[in-house]
Specification:
Layout (H helix, E strand, L loop, with lengths): L2 E7 L5 H6 L4 H6 L2 E7 L6 H11 L2 E5 L5 H10 L3 E5 L13 H11 L4 E4 L2 H7 L6 E3 L20 E6 L5 H15 L5 E7 L10 E5 L5 H6 L3 E4 L13 H8 L4 E3 L5 H4 L6 E3 L3 H13 L1 H18 L2 H16 L8
Helix pairs in contact: 3-4, 4-5, 9-12
Length: about 325
């Protein structure tokens, strides 16, 4: 008889739901599980559905969603085994400032879980303050999706940024610098793969509406992936999906040395870490003048993803964590 695992998330269209839940469903099925998904929206009837679904599952995984103490306790009581999965610094505001309410809600769920799955070592260290059973599960992807043979537009040196309105401010803050760099690299162009448009006066911009079907081709047809980002408590919790996508698509990466990005990007091997404007200028100019190095760095990036951030590799750790939790009888089965 197959075991049932329920993922409770913010919604089926959220990137975290795809990359940390739905993408693993085929692997879970092959490993003897029946996976299912439930969105915890704000409907008045949703809490009853969540608790009823949790009661029927062998394992409940709550992805990023936090609750007040009363509902966290109910979910704990209704679940045989409860796991909390985190891929963001949900205990603080998105600008990195402290939030007493978010910290309290995180503590409410973390204290009541059998395990916490953390997307990077910083999140793991924060989770360990509330729960001794923490498993490091990096956000991972299917590299083969990005292994495309595509034609790059050699009329431009194309920088690409992939993201959403939630992180638009990071790109906006870097735009003046990119415009300045464009003055010395006339063929520089910025491609944005997102849910918004952006214009610049001194830099040609190509905006592509993001979809899961086109994202791989949009990246692979570019030349350099960029990831400007401040370094604060919120960005420390980021799990590097953007740069992993660039690397899987065979692109060299230029990233701020923020959060897990500074661990994934090996400076001078699969990309460059740019601390300040001068670093950004130097990195872009160097890669503009050295197409062979762009190719070598892209190949090194693919190797990084294949060895450390593929779904195949991460599922091995997930399966081990689930086996460990199932060795103990669930509190509702005793």
């Amino acid at each position: 008889m197959k075991k049932k695992i329920l993922f409770i998330t913010k919604g089926v269209h959220a990137a975290s739901t795809r990359y940390r839940a739905l993408n693993y469903f085929p692997y879970l099925r092959k490993n003897g599980w029946t996976p299912c998904h439930l969105s915890a929206d704000n409907s008045i009837f949703r809490p009853f559905k969540v608790l009823n679904s949790a009661r029927k599952a062998d394992v409940v995984v709550v992805l990023r969603k936090t609750f007040n103490g009363f509902f966290s306790n109910l979910l704990h009581r209704f679940s045989k085994h409860l796991i909390f999965d985190m891929d963001d610094a949900i205990f603080c505001h998105s600008d990195g400032t402290p939030s007493q309410m978010r910290a309290k809600r995180f503590k409410n769920i973390a204290n009541r879980c059998d395990q916490i799955w953390a997307g990077n070592s910083y999140l793991a260290s924060m989770a360990l303050r509330h729960n001794p059973s923490v498993v490091l599960l990096p956000t991972s992807l299917s590299p083969e999706k990005y292994f495309l043979t595509t034609t790059k537009n050699n009329n431009f040196l194309e920088l690409v940024w992939i993201g959403s309105s939630a992180t638009k401010r990071y790109l906006n803050s870097a735009l003046p610098l990119l415009e300045e760099i464009a003055e010395s690299i006339p063929d520089l162009r910025l491609k944005i793969v997102a849910d918004f448009d952006l214009t610049a006066q001194k830099l040609p911009v190509q905006s592509i509406v993001w979809s899961e079907e086109i994202e791989a081709e949009a990246l692979a047809s570019s030349h350099i992936g960029i990831a400007p980002m401040p370094d604060d408590a919120w960005t420390q919790g980021k799990c590097g999906l953007k740069i992993l996508q660039y690397m899987a698509a065979g692109l060299p990466v230029i990233s701020s040395p923020s959060g897990v990005n500074k661990d994934i990007v090996k400076h001078g091997i699969n990309g460059f870490l740019a601390q300040n404007p001068e670093d950004w200028k130097a990195a872009i100019k160097h890669l503009a003048q050295n197409p062979d190095q762009r190719q070598r760095m892209g190949q090194a990036g693919r190797k990084t993803v294949l060895e450390n951030y593929s779904i195949d590799a991460t599922f091995t750790s997930m399966a081990t964590a689930l086996d460990a939790i199932m060795e103990n009888p669930g509190k509702n089965t005793q």
